[in-house]
Amino acid sequence: MRSASGEWEIPLGKVAVDTELAKKLIHHCHLLTENAEAHRSEHSLEVQLPFIYYLKQNFKFVPISVGTVGYATLERLGKGIAETIKELGEDILVIASSDMNHYEADDITRIKDRKAIDRILALDPKGLYDVIRAESITMCGYGPTIAMLWGTMPVRTGHAELIKYATSGDVTGDKKEVVGYAGIAIT
Question: Around Cβ 74, how many Cβ atoms within 10 Å?
């Protein structure tokens, strides 16, 4: 976690950190600590903020950066997020940001990505972890995705939907080395 207070400046304005939520997350997720350097070279969260801001200018957020850790740690983090959400009793949007498979041929990337997407759509955090490892899928944000799946488990309806899938090859025309992208909503 970068900071339990303050604001982030984005091209459209400033976005406040939700101090109350941050403190509760730290209380329930003993793995979380404030770390001003956590997002210095990590862009996955800050690229989401302008889109959210465009839809709703008056929102607060808590930035959490997840490094490379084992499955048990991701499960504990997710369960801490779930406890916090239950305690607050409010609707909270949880976003996990990640590219899918990286720098393989388009056909291979699509096969690998489909395996990971199927586990996310099945709301199966352990299955996602296992398929990432077994198939050598280079999904850089699998950790946050697994934590998000655990964190939303007690409050979701059990529905996941693939909104859109594409690879960089769909835009550039270069199918030799692509990156996969998936938008998935879980309610």
Answer: 26
pLDDT digits (tens, 9 = 90+) for 73-100: 999 999 999 999 999 888 889 999 899 9
Residue 57 pLDDT exceeds 80: yes
Do 26 and 32 meet the contact criterion of CB atoms below 8 Å apart?
yes
Q: Counting runs of H as helices and runs of E as strands, what totals does the chain give?
A: 7, 6
Q: What pTM was computed for the model? A: 0.89
CA distances from 68 to 2, 71, 140, 180 (A): 17, 10, 9, 20
In the chain, the amino acid numbered 113 is D
Nearest to 86 by CA among 27, 160, 19: 27
Alpha-carbon span 128 to 52, nearest angstrom? 26
Relative orientation angle of helices 142-152 and 71-88, to the nearest 10 degrees: 40
Rounded Cα gap, residues 12 and 116, in angstroms: 33
Please name which of 93, 7, 88, 5 lies closest in space to residue 46, comparing C-alpha atoms.
7
The residue ranges of every structural domain in the chain are: 96-187
